[in-house]
Every structure is written in structure tokens, then in C-alpha cells.
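re the bet — no i am not wrong, look at it urself. input seq straight from the record:
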Amino acid sequence: MLTPRQELILCKVVEDYLHSGQPVASKAIAADPSLDCGPSTVRNELALLEEHDLLAHPHTSAGRVPTDAGHRYVVDRMLDTGQSLAPVRPLALSLTRSEVEEAMRLTSVAISQVTSLLAVVSAPALDTAKIRHIEVLALQPQVVMVVVITSTGGVSKLLTSFGGPVDQGLVSWAGEYLNERLVGFGLGARMLSKRLDDPSLGTSERAFVDRLAPAFGSIKSETEDTLYVDGTAHLLSSQAIGDLTGMNELMSMLERRAALLRVLRAALGESDVYVRIGRENEIPAMRSLALVAAGYGVARRKLGAVSVIGPVHMDYAGAIATVREAAHELSRFVEDAYAER
């Protein structure tokens, strides 16, 4: 447990290091009028903070820099005390009348612009979405399109070609039948395909439904585990990644995305903001970076997460405030989407 003076000195080092990117000298800290002690006391307190592994001393003649644990202490203090946090700039995010894909994309762009960090937004997971509406349309005499609209605003479609002209009455019937059988069911439900099987169907109706059935099996590959990423250039230009190996690992992670999705899913279990700093990250590619994330969704159920990734010495206050605001806006968006199902 730190004393109030030690907390003040630690916060001062973190703040100065954030602004300058350089080790903070004891002389600069002692000059702070909010400290009621002399240079010798400051040096002693810095030594104690170093013993607690909250500060590091890169070189004998250099000042101190915060460690991962030092950043963590300050972040926890922010969250525990309910410190007023505000974004560096207003998010100015309007998602009215957006489809889910556009809402996620707009959110990632806005977060990256405000924070100058890499922004990652995960779309609602497949098993949280339900079928809201189905359209069966004859695009051409021999081509039928099935459009599936989900409760989160997602859209999936399938084109099917037939050997001859399709009866328009059959197309109209199929739209009514599929809506009656499938609306309200989750996309990941095992019984989805069974819902299409009705022994009372005639031969032509059964054959037609069987041709359209793949539209519901293909939704998973198209909509599951989607990430929206913006600001990769910010991360690379910040020199947060110390070597080429680390950079290559991070770029591979962004390409594969599965590991990053696992990280964001962990954020869904947090009641507030999820923060992982440096070596707290399980993924090697992120151990020189920090992640700030917040889940969004409907009442008592998180559907996805908004996050920023950047250097360990990022502006945590601004990052926390920004992802909170973005999560709030996305929650309002999906609440409206779910209300329509």
C-alpha cells in the first residue's frame, strides 16, 4: 500500500512520461508545488517506488520510467476512485439508421481518430443474433435470392439457380413458410434445420425448401466473429513495437484475428472497462502493448466489445473514456435493433 505522497509522485512520473516519452528526473518532480517535501525526500520515495517494481531506472544517470505495474497501479486508482474521465476530443458518433456493419465500421474509425490508437470493434457474436425476417425473391425466371435479416441488423443472402423458370406462387409461399418456421430462432440453434422439415409438405414444396436451406447454413461463415479494425498506421508510427519480430507477430495476429477475438471476448465478462497492460497480455504479440476495452450490448447481456490498442504509455484516461462512450452508443444502437425483432 502506497502512502498519499508516493501515489502523487508515481502519478506525476506517469503523467510526465506520457507527455515527454523520456525518463523523468527527480529534480522535475521535486519542483512540483503540490509536493510538500524536498529533493532528498523525493529521491528516497522514488527509490522505494522502484523497490515496489512500480518505477524503473533505465540508466544510472537517467530519471525514472513507469513499469507495467506502475501503469496498472495508476489505472486501478483511476477506476477505483471514480475519477472523472473525458475523451481527448468528443467522439461525435452518430449511428442512427446504420446497418450493423456500417455502425461497427463508423465506430472503429471514430475511436481511432479521437485516440490516435489502433481501434478494434467486434460485431455481435453469431449465437446472440436471431432471425428477424426472411425475403425470397425471384431475380430472374430461373434465379431466386434468399435474404436473411438478423435481430442485430446483419444481412445475409444466397442466390440459387434452377434448371427452369420458377413458379412465382412457389416463391411467395416459400417466403411465408420460412418466416413462419424460422423467425425468432437463433442462428446458432441446432434445431434450425429441423424447423424446415415438415412431413406435410408436398414434393415440389419440399424440393424447393431444400434448395433454399443452404442460405441458413451459410450465415455462420459470413457473419460470425467479425472484427472492424482502424488505425493500424497509428500503432506502427507510434514506435510502440520494439523490434521487427514483435511487429511481425502483431501483424500476423491482425491478419488471423482469432487470437484477438479471444482477447475481446474476455472483456465481455467485465462489468466496466477491461485493461491489460504489457505482460499482463497472454498473447506474445501484445506484451509490449496495452489494451483498453469495454463491452456493449443489451440489458444483462454483452454482445461485443470496443477497444483500443497502443503503447503501454498511452493516455489511459482518454482511452477509457472513449471506449466507454463508444460502448454506450453501440449499446443504444443494438437495443433499438433488438427492440424491432
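see?? DSSP finds 14 helices and ten strands in the chain. told u. also Residues 204 and 291 are 55 Å apart (CA to CA). so pay up
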